[in-house]
Structures are given as C-alpha cells and as structure tokens.
Amino acid sequence: MSEQQQQHESGSDSPASEGVAAHSNSMASKEVMPDSNSFTSEEVKPVSPQDKSEESTQPSKERWSGGVHLTLDCNVDAAWSLQSDFLGLVKWVPTISICSHEAGPYNDVGCVRYCKGSGTTWVYERLLEMDHAQKYMSYIMEKNQFVFRDGFQDYIAKVQLGDAGEGKTWVKWTYEVDPVATQTLESLTTFMTKFYTSNLEFLKEGANKTKPSRRIAQRIWQQSMCCRARSLF
C-alpha cells in the first residue's frame, strides 16, 4: 500500500465528503433507465425499492435501496461531461477537497478514486460501468468512512442522464447497500434523498458554469446532513 493510501485511511488529511437499485449480482447487466418522457417535473421523486417478489431457491441477504429521479435546469451534454468524469468531482462539487486516481485505468472502467471533503468522510470508489451513448455509469464504494459510524458496506450506485427537452436534463440516481447498523431504512432513505439532491444541485450549477461558492456549498451540505444527525444511534 502506498504512503498516500496509508495517509488517506488514517484520516490525517484535510477534512472530508461523498451513492442503486437492483440486486448486487445484477451489476454486470446494465439496467436501462426510463426515457425522458418519464421526467417532466422539477419535483424530486424518491425511487421506491425494487420489487423483490421473484421466486428464488437461495435465501437472499437483506439489502436497502432507493434513490431519486428529477429534472435539472441545464443542458444534458454539459451535465454528462461533468458526471462522467470519474476523477473530476472537484470540478463541480465544492465540498470535495480531494479526488485522486489510486488504481486501475485512468478515468475508465476499473478506475479507483479516493475522495475526501467536508467533515470526516473519505471513500474509495471503483468505476464498474460507463456508457457514453446511454449517458449511464455505475460504481461501487469499497473501503470507506462514509458519514455513518461504520460507513457503508457493499454500496453500489447507478446514474443515468437524459434529455428532458427545453434545455433540461432528467437524472436517475439509485443505490443499493447493506443495512446500516446506526440507521433505520426510513432514516437512511431520507438522508440519501437529501444527499443526492444536494449533489445534483451542484451538478446543475456546474453544467451552467455557475459553481456556488464554498460557503453556499457548505450550507447546502449541512442541510443534507441535518437529518442524519438526528438518527445516528
């Protein structure tokens, strides 16, 4: 392990930040997201957990899933240019102070990034899929200390963007994760909805080249954190 990675994991760097519906064994086959006609409102629509009524001979471990789909007032190509830059979070997320290449191909499938931002959060994430034609990507969070006491286990996220017309972009961002010991399903769903919405606000501002100041970004971040603070233990 490199000296830089040891420093990352020890939390000795500057302060930190930063997630799919579908079963974890399905990540090899890309889920086709709804077309843009499904997203015509500015209102955030939480994504319901996937129907798990399929018969199975093997017991399945419990997984929590959710996400958002909403419409951003920005150009889809500009938004995808930022979203698809796996190593470029510092370009549009003001709360991220570090986004570095740690392993694998540079900015391509298999790439591992290390991210650190506000608070004490740090994460290693690996890019699983990238489809520029469909504006679709997925990634998995590996070693991490994400927000909660024990971080996230087996967290997988999928993101897809599409043209909503009139210069707007629809986004579907979903996740699946093992149950979090310090949270209920309801409290985690509330937190992740606010967390995703805050980051997509940053994406919209970045696509419009009106990146918010760090002070405003910190306020948006703190608002997304407030629900987590009330239900940590």
Automatic annotation (TrEMBL):
Segments for region (Disordered): 1-64
PANTHER family in UniProt: BET V I_MAJOR LATEX PROTEIN DOMAIN-CONTAINING PROTEIN, LACHRYMATORY-FACTOR SYNTHASE
Ranges annotated as biased composition (Polar residues): 1-15
CDD domains: PYR_PYL_RCAR_like (cd07821)
Gene name in the database record: LOC112288098
Ranges of biased composition (kind: Basic and acidic residues): 51-64
InterPro entries: LFS, Polyketide_cyclase/dehydratase, START-like_dom_sf
Species of provenance: Physcomitrium patens
Pfam family membership, one: Polyketide_cyc2
Protein name per the record: Bet v I/Major latex protein domain-containing protein
